[in-house]
Design a protein that fits this description.
The chain is of the alpha/beta class. It has 13 helices and eleven strands.
């Protein structure tokens, strides 16, 4: 190569490097985001421990080499517990960690992305979300609000709740003051329950003072931590209202669109990891806490009477049908969920159900 050719090659190389520099700088751009939560700082599962909001933020920071750092705020630290939706929508924060059914006042379809009464379990819910079009519908629901969402946690099946008095019939529900959110609250209300929606931190004092007569929160570990067993002794099972409760990572769409593809992939995969890891955490801690509550704390645990469950199922069908009839988007989500559930139920009969009846013993 002569001197002229060498100089030309060097110039071309420098020009190429100059053109590549902006792209490289963009790829390595760093972001500092804020994430609020509907749950108080220090709350196990939601704010602390494997699969929690703080664990999610750490995983994202570690996987991105610090290029995406997320500062996590508990309920009330930056915004009140139930104002995360508005904060993300306004761009005050980039993310919120909560449950979609808190936003049913904004859009009725949101309920389906947390839990549906008499709905699918953890396996079925994940099947619908990841492979049945659920996440795509979730983002379609939130598109008018300028937000996107991802599943990032799951409690698995929850407990029906704590009651100061024994429930023997549907009549025992009438006039009962109960903390219960979401569609389940509407179902209970149709049977005469006086429904209350309270943040987790307010449940125990309300139950202890008699402001409410019954309360649902999560499961044995979380409920014991709140001290609910000290205010009520009847602990009912079935999980009819929340057979698999999804935690939601809500993201401002404009902020999301500014992330390069690799950081979007990191957030998506970190959220998916937390979805599985958090549910595993619940299985261990709930089994240990349930043993303690029954053996050492004087708790009376039993399923709701069949007649009560039947009445709840009848009212659930009515509530779901009414909600779907009022709003095309809710109907679209409802139809997708129920179509997937019908297929999953048939498979579950020969897999999960057969296991519980024939194998587990």
């Amino acid at each position: 190569m002569n001197a002229v050719s060498r100089r030309s090659a060097l110039k071309a190389g420098f020009a190429g490097a100059a053109l590549a520099a902006p792209a490289l700088a963009s790829a390595q751009q760093s972001f500092n985001w804020k994430m609020t939560s509907a749950y108080p700082k220090g709350s196990p599962f939601y704010m602390d421990g494997p699969g929690s909001a703080t664990d999610l933020a750490k995983r994202i920071a570690d996987m991105s080499g610090g290029r995406l750092k997320i500062q996590v705020f508990g309920a009330g630290e930056l915004v009140p517990a139930f104002e995360g939706f508005d904060a993300v929508r306004a761009g005050t924060v980039e993310m919120n960690h909560a449950n979609a059914y808190f936003w049913t006042g904004k859009t009725a379809a949101a309920q389906y992305f947390t839990a549906v009464p008499f709905g699918m379990n953890f396996q079925g819910m994940n099947g619908w979300l990841y492979d049945g079009g659920g996440i795509e519908l979730w983002n379609e629901v939130y598109a008018p609000f300028g937000m996107v969402a991802l599943p990032c946690g799951n409690t698995g099946v929850q407990m029906t709740g704590w009651f100061k008095k024994e429930i023997n019939s549907v009549a025992d529900l009438k006039g009962l003051k109960m903390r219960i959110p979401g569609l389940a609250g509407k179902v209970y209300a149709s049977l005469g329950v006086d429904v209350k929606v309270l943040p987790g931190g307010e449940i125990f004092p309300a139950l202890e003072r008699g402001v409410i007569d019954a309360a649902e929160f999560v499961g044995p570990f979380q409920d014991r931590r709140l001290g609910l067993h000290k205010a009520a002794k009847y602990y009912y099972t079935t999980g009819w209202h929340e057979s698999a409760t999804v935690s939601e990572l809500l993201i401002n769409k404009a902020a999301w669109d500014k992330l390069p593809a690799d950081l979007k992939a990191i957030v998506t995969n970190a959220a998916a990891a937390c979805n599985v890891i958090s549910e595993a955490w619940c299985q261990k801690h709930n089994s240990e806490a349930m043993d303690d509550l029954v053996k050492n704390q004087g708790v009376i645990a039993k399923p709701l009477p069949d007649a009560v469950i039947k009445a709840l199922k009848t009212e659930t069908d009515k509530v779901l049908a009414e909600a779907a009839a009022k709003d095309p988007m809710t109907k679209k989500v409802h139809d997708s969920y129920m179509a997937f559930k019908a297929k999953y139920d048939r498979w579950s009969e020969v897999s999960e159900e057969a296991y519980h009846i024939k194998v587990r013993g």
